[in-house]
Design a protein that fits this description.
The complex is a heterodimer of chains A (about 110) and B (about 120). With about 110 residues, chain A is mainly beta. Chain A has no helices and eleven strands. In chain A, about 0% of the residues lie in helices and about 60% in strands. Chain B contains no helices and ten strands. Chain B is globular and about 40 Å long. The chains are: A mainly beta (about 110), B mainly beta (about 120). Chains A and B meet through strand 4, strand 5, strand 9 and strand 10 of A and strand 4, strand 5 and strand 9 of B.
Chain lengths: ~110, ~120
């Protein structure tokens, strides 16, 4: 079983929609959860991270961790065409990062 | 300031040749990671350097892969006798470790390796 599982999509939404991206994870040891955004032919860039459980908000982005169901989510409000990218979830524990395979998002103008 | 840089950006090589990929981390970052990203796949951890500690090589897929980090800064990933399945984007990331915590890592643009 992979440490982090993610639906590859693609996910296509109209501009202004609320986007929900999700991952599941195994192994509930002490850890952080991250979301990265990766544009085509670029390296991933860190969007935000949360510790263990709860919500974290940054502008139009909200990261949520549900420890009971081992579910991590990223919500994007008022999505823009510039949000079109691949979104990678990851968990971090003891100097190791475990990444999902990424969900490709397309926001149509 | 300057981010993580990698060279070359693209590399095409013949099967059986050796290749060297270079990573220049952000100045002052003590932790350095190498990953491999194949089409439609997530990032596969390869190796981790932290300061002067012995590197964590647990992700290297075979003994054809090796990496070194000189002077705690620049790192080189070497693939010997390349195979077609080695074709992928190789990403380097660095982070500033604080109290043993390296969760904020910054990625380079990657080297796209194609083995023909």
């Amino acid at each position: 079983q992979k440490e982090v599982e993610q639906d590859p999509g693609p996910l296509s939404v109209p501009e202004g929609a609320i986007v929900s991206l999700n991952c599941t994870y195994s192994n509930s040891a002490f850890q952080y959860f991250m979301w990265y955004r990766q544009y085509s032919r670029k390296g991933p860039e860190l969007l935000m991270y949360t510790y263990s459980s709860g919500n974290k908000e940054d502008g139009r982005f909200t990261a949520q961790v549900d420890k009971s169901s081992k579910y991590i989510s990223l919500f994007i409000r008022d999505s823009q065409p510039s949000d079109s990218a691949t979104y990678l979830c990851a968990k971090y524990n003891f100097n190791k990062f475990y990444f999902g395979s990424g969900t490709k998002l397309n926001v149509k103008p | 300031g300057a981010g993580v840089s990698q060279s070359p950006s693209n590399k095409v090589t013949e099967k059986g040749k050796d290749v060297e990929l270079r990573c220049d981390p952000i100045s002052g970052h003590t932790a350095l990671y190498w990953y491999r990203q194949s089409l439609g796949q997530g990032l596969e951890f390869l190796i981790y350097f932290q300061g002067n500690s012995a590197p964590d090589k647990s992700g290297l897929p075979s003994d054809r892969f090796s990496a070194e980090r000189t002077g705690g800064s620049v790192s080189t990933l070497t693939i010997q006798r390349t195979q077609q399945e080695d074709s992928a984007v190789y990403l380097c990331a660095s982070s500033l470790v604080s109290a043993g915590d390296a969760r904020e890592q910054y990625f380079g643009p990657g080297t796209r390796l194609t083995v023909t």
